[in-house]
Amino acid sequence: MILAIFCEAFKTKVSRNANMAKLQAGYLFPEIARRRATHLLKYPDAQVISLGIGDTTEPIPEVITSAMAKRSHALTTLEGYSGYGAEQGEKQLRAAIASTFYGDLGIEEGDIFVSDGAKCDISRLQVLFGSNVTMAVQDPSYPAYVDSSVIMGQTGLFQKDFEKYGNIEYMRCTPENGFFPDLSSVSRTDVIFFCSPNNPTGIAATREQLTRLVKFAKDNGSIIVYDSAYAMYMSDDSPRSIFEIPGAKEVAIETSSFSKYAGFTGVRLGWTVVPKELLFSDGFSVAKDFNRIVCTCFNGASNIAQAGGLACLSPEGLKGMRDVIGFYKENTEIIMDTFNSLGFNVYGGKNAPYVWVHFPGRSSWDVFAEILEKTHVVTTPGSGFGPGGEGFIRVSAFGHRGNVLEASKRIKQLYK
Amino acid sequence: MDAIVQHYISENGTLDIDAWREHLDFTFVCFWGLTIIDNSAGSTCLAIEMVPVTGHCTKVPRNVNIEKLRNGYLFPEISVREFKHIQKYPDAKLISLGIGDTTEPIPEVVTSAMSEALRKAIVEMFYRDVGVKDTEVFVSDGAQSDISRLQLLLGSNVTMAVQDPSFPESVGYVAMGLKFIVDDKFQAYIDSSVIIGQTSKFQEETGKYGNIEYMKCGPENNFFPDLSATSRTDVIFFCSPNNPTGYAASREQLKKLVKFARENGSIIIYDSAYAAYITDDSPRSIFEVPGAREVAIEVSSFSKFAGFTGVRLGWTVVPEELLFSNGFPVIKDFDRIVCTCFNGASNIAQAGGLACLSSEGYMAVRAVVEYYKENAKILVDTFTSLGLMVYGGNNAPYVWVHFPGLRSWDVFNEVLEKTHIITVPGRGFGPGGEEYIRVGVFGGREYILEASRRLKKLFD
Fold first, then answer.
1. Which residues on B lie below 8 Å from A127 (Cβ)?
2. pLDDT tens digits, one per residue of B50-104
3. Which of A91, B44, B144, B347 has the most CB atoms around it within 10 Å of its CB?
4. Domains and CATH numbers, chain A
5. C-alpha to C-alpha distance for B457 and A273, rounded to whole angstroms
6. Which CATH superfamily is domain B70-103+361-459 in?
7. B167 has a pLDDT exceeding 80
8. Does the beta-carbon distance from A133 to B61 stay under 8 Å?
């Protein structure tokens, strides 16, 4: 990587995209990875344990990997070979997603767009919306919502004093408001990103809260982009889909993923639901335009990943996923107990694989650095998710049991 | 036969029109009706019945750039015509040399391997002698996604140039979900540009979008644009070997292109997806040209090289020396886009890619490429023996056949009607494609031989 630009270096006459210039530092998770790497250089013998980047660690259930291997091998046969697939995804998989997750909610196969994951979908949704829309995010929230908005040109400059980009509505979510924004003080925006169960706070919105959110969107003529990637981690009966709320089909898009259910973070498979009833202000169908984006900017998820996805939704596959999810939920309990026992205020954990720990008055990057330096455990500083995350640390529950137990031990040592 | 249409064809060969309509109806979200009509000019049009909108509208304005996209009331004519043809000749053994989709299975060695440093393997295999570093290689889920991410990187305030022909006439996505018979990638140059907001409106009279520079390529200029007549744009999309003409630019020509880009301070986005099909010593990478590292990005794919059209794997090379006007390295911004808007190609696809580049794997996929090239040779010979002017086929899996004075849709129709062979009318690739048809070479050998037999009979 060139770090020094010499004056003699040839420059094109192509202007740098001004939106890219607005972005702050690096995207959060590569930044964490960089710090981890630096730490390892400093302590080459340290047994670093990562509870930072929310990456799955446990193997994928056999029934799922066999299906992928089978599909892979089939590609070597004339009968089993397939080339370009429908950009929206293979019919069987779309149907299985619709019936498994939206069975009685009136969402059909045709409403499902299979993708290579939520991050890519969010970006394609931004391309769909264009630069002339305003958006709201929870604060704190998953960085891709804000960063993709900046790249699209929807935002103003980053304001260092507020740690916020101009022209984005940040909906503060704190222990004081039960991690649900006070909608009466939220300005209207065209798009509202809402993630539940939430990354990073781990909080799942209640039926009553989501009903209010849908009403708010309806009254304002806004579109909710609802990220339900952690729905299967829920323990209570909070809604697993925004479409459980009456009227949501006219105001919401839902995006989800196999990443955290099936360990597909590397395999790459997810989906987005765009209901037929969702319309732009001129009556044009949002699904129609999204389909155009998908056909122009994408060429479908890998056929092998899709075969895996289909196996995920077989009875055996679903059981396999639930087992893995159960395993991570046990990890979450261990982590929650650890911090609780140390007297911290701990949030989340019940409905998501994330534990949100409060360190009042402290800079989250400082706490991150302290934990890393003294226990060789990687976490994620809350401010990386927005100003509302300052003073918090996110601890993710993905990890081998031994590592999670060891990390807990070290943290107990540090903060006893 | 388009896979989606096929789904609605029952066992006795009839199209379940209602089911298909229902599928299409979704396109119009329940309030548009579809009628397929024939008009006497031989083109098939779709009549859209509009029904008043009921239900809640949000107050979110539709993206004006998407509105600019050709939404035409033209239908993917070829799929429809193919279907109607089958209706008319139910016993015909239809041969499709239309769609640019690979057909041959992926060699065994490729499908059973484990994954490792794919980037290094790509550099070692394709860029060993031209100084590309593995840190400059970005592995992706294919060229279509890469082009879109490059457009996102560049933003709406840049101008672009494309070869003409090299894009299909925007027949629009009126029938959502139906496969387009032309290579989607090429739609991607223009359409992604429109979506990002780089262009102005589509002009019916010229068949072109405003604010795009179309660089005419034909036999008269040796399929290389007259750069002296080309206006400066920020970005130049250049595909070689070319779809649809099959022409591979010579070293001399690419030197001129690089010089042109350098003088204008432009960035070339070079699509080398068909490089594996080159027979002669035409450059396989833009980086074979000195000075290209400061002006070019290269996009490539495993799709046509290894039959990965469904598996999804490709890559983009962004040299460190490539700088924006303010000196900022393009690679840094592209890296940011890739980190923010993407999460990597499937690890399984990457494992397959790595196997493709092992010595055993490479030999195996090359054998499939050679198979397709043999197909190309057969088709080139067939058309040549009939006294027709034939281009391409030598360095790409496409044969570009000239029918001077004839409308390409007429030729398409005649070929389909009389030989039951699907091709692609050149007009579908832009005004520069009129009078030509594109014949794809993907298909089993028997198919290709049978197609040749039928064509010889027709044109004799």
1. 148, 152, 195-196
2. 333 455 667 777 776 665 555 322 234 455 566 677 778 888 776 766 655 666 6
3. B144
4. 25-54+316-415 (3.90.1150.10), 62-314 (3.40.640.10)
5. 51
6. Aspartate Aminotransferase, domain 1 (3.90.1150.10)
7. no
8. yes
